[in-house]
Amino acid sequence: MASSNNTDARMPRRRLITLTVLVIALVVALAIGSFTSAESRATPKFALDLEGGTELILTPQTTDGSSITDEDVSQAIEIIRQRVDAQGVAEAEISSQGGQNIVVGLPGQPSEETLNLVRSSAILRMRPVLASGVPAPLTDAVYEQAKKQKEGQAKEGEQGQANPDQAPTSAAGTLEQGATDTPVAASPSADAQASASPSAEATPSDGASKPATEAKPLTGAELEAAAKELADSNGDGKISDEPAEHPADASDTAWITEQTLYDFWTLDCTADVQANSNDDPAKPLVACSSQTDPTTGEIMAQKFILGPAEVEGTQIEQATAGFDQAGQPAVSLRLNQEGADAFSAVTGRLLNLKSPRNQFAIVLDGKVLSNPVPSVQIRDGQAQITGGSLNAQNARTLANQLNFGSLPLHFEVQSQQQISATLGSESLRAGLIAGLIGLILIVAYLMWQYHALGVVAILSVVLATGVSYLIVCLLSWTIGYRLSMAGVVGLIISIGISADSFIVYFERIRDEIRDGRTLKSATERGWQRARRTILASDSVNLLAAVVLYFLAVGSVRGFAFTLGLTTILDLIVAFWFTYPVMKLLVRTKFFGGGHRWSGMSAELLGRSPSYSGRGHTRKKEEVATQAFVAAPASAAVVTEAENEVSAAEADSELAAISAGPQGPSLAERRAAKRRAELSAEGIAVPEEADGVDVAEDADASATTGSDLATPDEESDGKENA
Predict the structure, then answer these.
(1) Is Cell membrane a UniProt keyword of this protein (predicted)?
(2) Staple 321 to which of 81, 395, 499, 602, CB 3.0 to 4.6 Å?
């Protein structure tokens, strides 16, 4: 018994200590974050409706002139939403406008990386490199050198066409199988450097990052005329888009048509590198790359002629950002069977080619992300992109783009502007005032209805609200969560949820007290009954929150999130605060003694029970009227006057016993009832029988009645005894 009492005493304290440690941990984590991170602060981030942000309007475009369907727009919206969510941007608003344009609203100040995720179509293709060159368009020196080369080829009977091949630069990354083999990066060979180079002056000494200072760049009509002259191989004055001969494979230089050469000579990759929107997978592509030198960190641009696409981004099953064996950022790829077969064929072919045709370009939205060199033939569809312009940040971006797929359309940014809050601080202030008024009304009701015990309910509400606020602040810092007006409503609802749980519990306690249980027993029994109700109610709320979160979008998801959060916190507060505090309070004199202002006063609850043993209780008026002890056969008959006196004495005795501080015991109550019954029937009861025969009969009745007692009543009877 002593061990059980010690356990009951320790349990509430352990729960309260655990809850206190958790709250302190939340406060410390937020405080540490405010000193170590600029993103952490004591207030949560707000969504578009409360803070404003950036709005982009995207206009769809097609390269083949085909019509744009509603299905394409809906698919594009879903992909953009997945990208934004994966970036950790909460409460973004993405919708269609006029059935064509897509409006994207991003709260706060989104990063450039996030904006690129929204703006880019993320059409990824893998193409073999046919030629590479300096990023600048034609210069006078390059033009003269290329013209002489073309004239020399014509004299030898070859079709005159200037070759733009340049040696690859150190910007080329490596494409390796898995993460086991150490690849060998492409390095310029003497043959590659000497072949078809327009001029020595045109090749920058720093790895094709800048044009030679001595060369004069051609512009305007002069540039177009020079490029057309160099690209026109047959001298007919027309620029053809058809290969001169049928290419053997995607790495065949026969894919370099007159139109491809013209595009190459006129393309300028030294300015802001723009993606080539004419990305037809069945045709060659002229594209730029803007990469970072892995040794110097210098930004280098390069220009490429690429063959037809051999692996599509749709053939990638999974892309994961991470690090290679050398600790450099990398993106690991896993292809499906079709992609694995194509990848095996192309990597095996590139091993036998010279630079730069041994490179494999990863092209995203018409721009070269990296041009790795395969070190082995990759047969299992597992590959890893390293080097080039990859860093930890854009590696994650690339992995997200590959995982969620490409947009079905190309989009042009029609406008990008800062927008103000749709609701603003006034609406937030009004919402907070409404919540404060509701809190004051709840506090007033609890204090009026439950007196001092209402303080426990108020502390429960304050604790649940405070922990909710701390968690929202931490989520704003760690995962970018933003609080919208709908989310504020969800937090305000937590006030009612917490108060409701306490009211359910305390009303169960009152019911048990009215039934005649002691305060300690009523507290435990009331919790057993209220616990089921609280769990059922919160389960329904949590289920509704989960369904809303996964099926709804926008601000409705914000409401569902805070509703689910506050529901979980209500369970924690009820089990780890409200119930343990009640267990401790019933041990105090003020609450356990039933003080008038404690909220547990038996008088205020209308209670006047008497404990009858074995968990049975009866009120005093029931004690005076209910008879259940049979009269013995050997009883003497008394006169009517004696009967009246005996009945009056029995009633007085019963009233005195019932008015005692602890109420009558089982034997006392039943003995008094029997005397009253016998006296009413005119049967005299000997004086000595009060303590012997009557008691024995009462004990026998108690023994018989014990068979009807429930297990709960047995335990309550023992406890009160």
Answers:
(1) yes
(2) 395
pTM of the model as a whole: 0.55
Q: How far is CA 653 from CA 559, 562, 614, 648, in A?
A: 65, 62, 23, 9
The per-residue b/e assignment along 327-341, b for 16 or more CB within 10 angstroms, e otherwise, is: ebbbbbbebeeebbe
DSSP conformation letters of 202-242? TS-TTTSSS--TTSPBP-HHHHHHHHHHHH-SS-SS----S
In this structure, the dihedral spanned by the alpha carbons of residues 380, 381, 387 and 390, taken in order and rounded to 10 degrees, is -150
Measure the CA–CA gap between 345 and 352, rounded to whole angstroms. 12
3-state SS of the chain: helix, strand, coil percent to 5?
50, 15, 35
Taking the C-alpha atoms of residue 118 and residue 263, their distance in angstroms, rounded to an integer, is: 28
Q: pLDDT digit string (tens) for 554-571?
A: 678 888 888 999 999 999
Domain 2-44+423-592 coded CATH 2.60.40.3140: no
What is the DSSP code string of 30-55? HHHHHHH-SS--SS-EE-HHHH-EEE
User: How does pLDDT run across 208-239, given as a tens digit for each residue?
Assistant: 344 444 667 777 787 788 888 888 877 777 88
Per-residue confidence (pLDDT) for residue 293, from 0 to 100: 61
The partner residues of 370 in beta bridges, in order of sequence, read 362
53-116 folds as Alpha-Beta Plaits (3.30.70)
